[in-house]
Amino acid sequence: MAEYMIQGETLTAIADAIRGKTGGASPIDPAQMAAEISNISAGGGLPAGISAVSVGTYTPASETTSSAKIPHGLGDVPNFVVMYADGLVTSADFATYICAFAGIPQLLEAGVGVRMYRHGSANGSSFNNGATLAYESAYTNTTFMVAQSSSYKLKAGTTYKFVVGKFA
Amino acid sequence: MDKYYKNFDGDYIVAIGTGNGDEEITKEEYENLLFVIRNRPTAEPGYEYKLRTDLTWERVEAPPVEDEDATEEDYIAALAELGVTSYEEV
């Protein structure tokens, strides 16, 4: 094996960086540094109670004039969806209803620019049976569906960001 | 790293996006399509432009808006959301 010289202060800097991540205070044997680094969590993990999330964007080429079926990459049927677009500030610009499938309570997400409704709820939107079935069938492991009305629609050229996920 | 997609409805590109979609494309194609979409022609009232897969715009009559989800209750709820709790018709 080839041998190399390394300055002591370089080793100390590496050890300090490891201790900064692990919270340790003990000296670290250079031979153990690789193992110490491997044991450091990379971070970015999911919050407790969330088993999976997938983020994506959707930019319609034309204004939606009917409900849009939006592809997602979760690989499972999501049970929450959040959608947002920068710069949409008026209620008419809020774009859409997100029509969630059964089990999601009606939510008004005024602060983030999206209304989320559980379809078919007595005090929410009043989809007829056909629409309800369409929304249910659109909630799959690859798509979710957003609705539109005369007041709310996806705007052409606007990039909508979304996150879909699954509670644990 | 993001994956980029375009989504079709027959001969039309209905949307582009990241995350998932009908056909994966390069970042360069995505950015080109984004430029095309954001520079679409302005349609007169009653019409809209749809993007064909050959990247030409086709003017079509705008279909009637589905408004099955708008009810009086929805509007009242929306007003209440804005803090309006009493009003009269004019």
Comma- or semicolon-separated keywords:
heterodimer, A: 168 residues, alpha+beta, 5-stranded mixed beta sheet, 3 helices, 8 strands, elongated, B: 90 residues, 5-stranded antiparallel beta sheet, 30% strand
The shape of chain B is elongated
Note the beta-strand portion of chain B.
25-35%
Poorly predicted runs of chain A are: 89-133
Helix content percent band of chain A: 10-25%
Cα-to-Cα separation, first versus last residue of chain A: 48 Å
Assembly type of the chains comes to: heterodimer
Largest sheet of chain B: 5 strands, antiparallel
Largest binding interface between chains:
A-B, 39 and 37 residues
Radius of gyration of chain A: 24 Å
Summarize the structure.
With 168 residues, chain A is of the alpha+beta class. Chain A has three helices and eight strands.
What's the arrangement of secondary structure elements?
The complex is a heterodimer of chains A (168) and B (90).
Chain A lengths: L7 H15 L10 H6 L11 E11 L7 E4 L8 E5 L12 E4 L6 E3 L4 E5 L10 H10 L4 E5 L12 E8 L1
Parallel strand pairs in A: 4-6
Antiparallel strand pairs in A: 1-8, 2-7, 3-8, 4-7, 5-6
Chain B lengths: L3 E6 L2 E7 L4 E3 L1 H12 L8 E6 L4 E5 L10 H10 L9
Antiparallel strand pairs in B: 1-2, 1-3, 2-4, 4-5
Please give a structural write-up.
The complex is a heterodimer of chains A (168) and B (90). Chain A contains three helices and eight strands. By secondary structure, chain A is α+β, with helices and mostly antiparallel strands. Chain A has a five-stranded mixed beta sheet, with helices on one face. In chain A, strands 1-8-3 form a three-stranded antiparallel beta sheet, with no helix packed on it. Chain A is elongated and about 70 Å long. About 27% of the residues of chain A have low confidence. Chain B is 24% helix and 30% strand. Chain B has two helices and five strands; from the N terminus they run βββαββα. In chain B, strand 1 and strand 2 form a beta hairpin. At the A-B interface, strand 1 and strand 2 of A face strand 2, helix 1, strand 4 and helix 2 of B.
